[in-house]
Design a protein that fits this description.
seven-stranded mixed β-sheet; binds 4'-deoxy-4'-aminopyridoxal-5'-phosphate; four-stranded mixed β-sheet; alpha/beta
């Protein structure tokens, strides 16, 4: 970056010598910010190794709904550690309590299993769907991300010439695995019906982010999720809502509570434990009973760290706070304030923009026209501008991830002043980018 934004190149160089690319997950090394070394996080902020503080709207891709290092969550984790750690046999009271609350809150959950990540949850959802139906194919939608495993590692953010055909995000995936995934356009009921007409008897599952937030925010058209429910039911396929982002963040019962549409299986993660590594897969008891956690059942399910007491304590403390404090009210109000402020800024600067999102999630696409409904609409986003002004935002101590189509998040720790600071910094960053 510029001299105005020094980075700790020495530490980052050490990282690059022993960690491929210097980071531990794809999309953590950002062009222009490759030397970023994070040393502290608290509330709505994180600090880098040069001492620079950022108001954080990236929020680690979404988990810390309460803010970083929430004192109640941190205290619960410490307390759990004083009495218990991982034993790997039987169950703990915390796991029972958490499962009961999840089943009470999320409409589709009759039973639930914990994993350590969202990817493991979606992996097992597809495995059990195949086990239950004896079928081969899964359907996903262009723009949705469901984790790193082979069946779903395709067609997330695709270049224009890759939309509508297989676009794996990794090499090393067997072609027959890719061939077993059908990719359809989100919000296209006719495409879904056509796929079922052609392949219905072979479709094990349809997996969908009910709101595809991995490309910012595409809201489902009225009737789209219902059409998925109708088609999967009619053809005996399993409907999976991947609520890893929407679960808890948009409502305690997830998007299924808000939409009134109940899938067969649901995957959860991220906001459930406010940043501790957790995922969950739940749904219809007859499907969940197929997992090998039930003696003699056929679908293998395991994980050394599943239900780790520290993670369960974090989840229980998070839930307690979500259930007793006006967290959603707060983050929804700030989300609205930010969307309104940003809309004004882009209008003032005469820059075509669509500011959208839901509740605590927001994104500003740099494009004209109506609110996007499907991935193809997002190809109009001005990528250079989208990334360019976000890089400048970082120089103003405000962090929205400078990568194409990434959403941003408000937490319970953000204040109205933080929101206004984001809006003001955006005004300056966009103006400077336009002038550059
Ligand atoms: N599903 C969705 C909707 C996600 O956004 C993510 C993570 N971004 C995953 C699944 C995978 O979760 P994890 O990174 O915890 O494996």
């Amino acid at each position: 970056m510029t001299a105005a934004h020094p980075h700790d190149t020495e530490l980052a160089d050490r990282a690059r010598r022993v960690i491929p690319g210097g980071v531990n997950s794809g999309q953590r090394s950002i062009p222009g910010l490759a030397d970023l070394v994070i040393t502290a996080a608290d509330g709505a902020r994180f600090t880098d190794s040069t001492g620079r503080e950022y108001v954080d709207y990236h929020a680690a891709f979404g988990p810390p709904l309460l803010g970083h290092n929430d004192p109640d969550v941190t205290a619960a984790v410490a307390a759990a550690g004083r009495t218990l750690d991982l034993c790997g046999v039987g169950v703990t009271p915390g796991e029972i309590d958490l499962a009961e609350q999840l089943c009470e809150l999320v409409p589709s959950l009759e039973q639930v299993l914990l994993t350590s990540t969202g990817s493991e949850a979606t992996f097992h959802a597809l495995r059990v769907a195949r086990a239950a139906t004896g079928r081969r194919l899964v359907v996903k939608f262009q723009g949705c991300y469901h984790g790193w495993h082979d069946s779903v590692s395709l067609n997330v953010i695709s270049a224009p010439d890759r939309v509508g055909r297989h676009d794996p995000i990794s090499t090393g995936i067997l072609p027959e695995v890719l061939d077993a995934t059908l990719v359809l356009p989100f919000n296209d009921i006719e495409a879904v019906r056509a796929a079922f007409t052609e392949h219905g008897a072979d479709i094990a599952a349809v997996i969908v982010e009910p709101v595809p937030h991995n490309v910012g925010c595409l809201l489902p058209d009225t009737g789209f999720l219902q059409a998925l429910r109708d088609e999967t039911s009619r053809h005996g396929s399993v409907l999976v809502f991947d609520e890893v982002i929407t679960g808890f963040r948009h409502a305690l019962g997830g998007w299924q509570q808000l939409s009134g549409i109940t899938p067969d299986l649901t995957t959860l993660g991220k906001a459930i434990a406010n940043g501790y590594p957790v995922g969950a897969l739940g749904g219809r008891a007859d499907l969940m009973q197929l997992f090998s956690t039930t003696p003699g059942a056929p679908a293998f399910f395991a994980g050394t760290y599943n239900g780790h007491p520290a993670v369960v304590a974090a989840a229980l403390a998070t839930l307690r706070k979500l259930r007793t404090e006006p967290v959603h009210e707060h983050v929804f109000a700030l989300g609205d304030r930010i969307r309104a402020g940003l809309t004004d800024v882009f209008a003032e600067l005469n820059l075509p923009a669509v500011v959208t999102g839901y509740g605590s999630v927001f994104v500003s696409y740099l494009m004209s026209g109506p609110v996007p409904r499907t991935y193809a609409d997002l190809l109009r986003n001005d990528v250079g501008m989208f990334i360019g002004y976000r890089r400048r935002l970082a120089e103003h101590g405000v962090f929205e991830l400078p990568l194409n189509l990434k959403r941003s998040h408000v937490s319970y720790a953000h204040t109205a002043d933080d929101a206004d600071r984001l809006v003001e910094a955006t005004r300056t960053a966009v103006r400077d980018t336009l002038a550059a």
